Each structure stands twice: as structure tokens, then as C-alpha cells.
What does this fold into?
Amino acid sequence: MRKKWIDVVCWIGFISIALFVLAPLMWGIRTSLTPNIESKLIPTHFTLEHYKNILARPLFLLYVKNTLFVAIGAIAITLPIAMLGGYALARYQFPGKKLSFVLMILPLLPAIAILVPLVSYINKMGLYDTLFAVTMVTVVFNLPFAVWMLRNFIISTPVAVEESALIDGCSQFQVVWRITLPSIFPGIIAVSVFLFINSWNGYLLAFALIATPEKRILAQAILAFLGVWGTDWGGLCAIGILALIPPVALFLFFQKWFIAGLVGQQLK
It folds into this structure.
């Protein structure tokens, strides 16, 4: 009887957490599919007008293009560096290696605390108001986590196979490229999904480094529906749902590799 009560309490807790998490999403979907004049809790009229208005705006596709540029650029730059850094931490001994845990402290620093000197530094470099600046800053903030994550995954792979390849005449680079890289494929996917989601949702850095409206990313474009004279709640929720689709779809497609990469397990 006691076990049954514990199960009931656990299920109530799970359902409560699920409702708490999903309620804003469901309300956003409801608002995006109903006219602005609809005020009932359970609407009787539905429309796709909000989505049509957003997709008809030329700037929307431009914002998506800018966001993809930042996300794909961050992944392309971060992965090679994180792979080499993670391999060095996992396989080599060098002075200061025991202090490598400091890497995980850096991402915990609030970005807004260094935002002013960061903008000043980017401006002096002549990169202010460019998507390249947003991409590079995104790389800097996400690189420590990527290095540490790949380092943990490389440690979990057997080193004997690499040693055998070295004995057979492979160079160190060939070992990394032909043996280590394929064996940590789930970790690569996990880091890529993590970088994409962070880049796609990265509002603060883009807000501080981008001034030209045509260079904004999608997260900044959502604020356009918050006006001085009122808020277009239907359009705001519609563009929020559209912005939610790519990262959710990416996670659902790669969830097996993503979860395996987070826990450092090999896929069977």
C-alpha cells in the first residue's frame, strides 16, 4: 500500500511539472491560432492569419538567414577547436592540466557583466554591427563547455585502439581523424545541437553587437511585436512558435545521439 501511494504521489508530481512546463507553450499555440478579438479560454474561431502575415514579411526570411549564419558558423568554428582541446585534455599530460576545471567556471559568468567592455573591444576591432562578431562571441562563450564535453567522451573511449594504430604507422592526426572522431560521433552531435540551440536563442549578444535592422537575428525580431501603442499578441506568439520549430526538430531528430553524448555512452 505504501508503494502504491508513493507511485501516486510521483505521478501527480510528474503531471504537475508537465502541465507547468507545457501550459505557456499551449497558450502560445492557442493565441497564435485565434483572432486578436478572441477572449474565450477555449476559442471557437481559429485562423492562420498571424502566420500568413509573418511569412509574407521579407525581413522574416532575412532574420532566419542571419540566425542560420551565426548558428552554423559557430558550430563550424567551435567543433574543430573543441575536438583538439578535448583530445589534449583527455590524452596528454602537461603543466596546469589539473586546473582545467576552470573551463567550466567561465560559462557560468553572466554575459551581461562583461557586456560593456565586450562591446567596446569589438568596436575597437572594427567588427561592431557584423554577424561575424556575434558568431565569434558565441564561439567564445560556448567553447569551454564543448571542450569539456568532448574531453569526457574521449576519456570513455579505449585508448588501446589508438595505440595499435600508432604502432601500425598512423600519425597522430590520422589517429584522431580515422579512429577517435568516428568513435565519439554521439558527442559531436550533442555539442552541435547544444551550439545550435544556444546560437539560435542568443538574444543578448546579438542585441548588444547588432545595430542595423537588416542584420538582426530572429530572437531580436520578436521584439518588433512589442510596440509603444500596444502588443500584437497573435503575431508575437506566431513568430515564437515558428522560431521554436528548428531547435525542437533538430533535438527530436538527433535526440538518441544527443542523450548518448551527454552521458558519455556509446551507441549500440
Strands lie at 226-227, 230-231. The domain at 56-263 is CATH 1.10.3720.10 (MetI-like fold). The mean pLDDT is 83.
